[in-house]
Amino acid sequence: MQLLVGANLFAVFALVALLAGGVGYWIGRSNLAAIDQQWQALAGRADAPTWFSLAASNSDLAATLRGACGPSAPSAFVEGGSRACRVPLWIDAPAAPAVAGTVAGVYSSALDWLNGWSPLMLVGGGLLAGLLLRRVFKLVVKTGPIAWLLDL
After folding, report:
1. Structure pTM?
2. Minimal CA–CA distance to 57: which of 87, 90, 97?
3. What is the DSSP string of the chain?
4. Residue 3 — φ and ψ, nearest 5°?
5. By C-alpha distance, which of 35, 21, 23 is closest to 119?
6. Cα separation, 37 vs 90, whole angstroms
């Protein structure tokens, strides 16, 4: 009876995960298509390399605009009935900040490495890691709560 309940729970969780993944994938694909159209329109401009360079050099343009062009910002002004402001932009990309600490550096490197994986590779890697960790867990449980520590 417990095996049947466990199998049913696993099936429900797998179905929910599959459904959530499918919906997320579908929403992401539709958003990606709209963003792709905007970037293609920008790429068709004569000054596209300059815009792409500015975009690459200024990672958070929204925060820069909020800080420099807010209602009480000293660099904001009105000219000819239109609002304008002087925005500080990086022309060349600033040096990347060093990641402080070993744990933060390892985490950052692992995250960069995983970002290069395709969704299929992530699912396969997760399944493989789950199978291997299950095997290790069963081995630890079989040897007893403390005995495995003494064998080291």
Report:
1. 0.40
2. 90
3. -HHHHHHHHHHHHHHHHHHHHHHHHHHHHHHHHHHHHHHHHHHTSTTHHHHHHHHHH-TTHHHHHHHHHSTT-TTEEEETTEEEE-----SSPPPPPPPPSHHHHHHHHHHHHHHTS-HHHHHHHHHHHHHHHHHHHHHHHHH-TTHHHHT-
4. -65, -40
5. 21
6. 26
Alpha-carbon distance values, 7 to 17, 19, 20, 130 (Å): 15, 18, 20, 17
What are the tokens at 106? 């390892």
Note whether 81 and 63 are within 8 A (CB). Answer: no
- Structure tokens given for 148: 């495995």
Residues 55-64: tens digit of each pLDDT: 888 878 888 8
pLDDT tens digit sequence for 75-118: 888 889 898 888 888 888 776 565 566 777 788 788 888 788 88
Instruction: Read off the tokens for 54.
Output: 């500015």
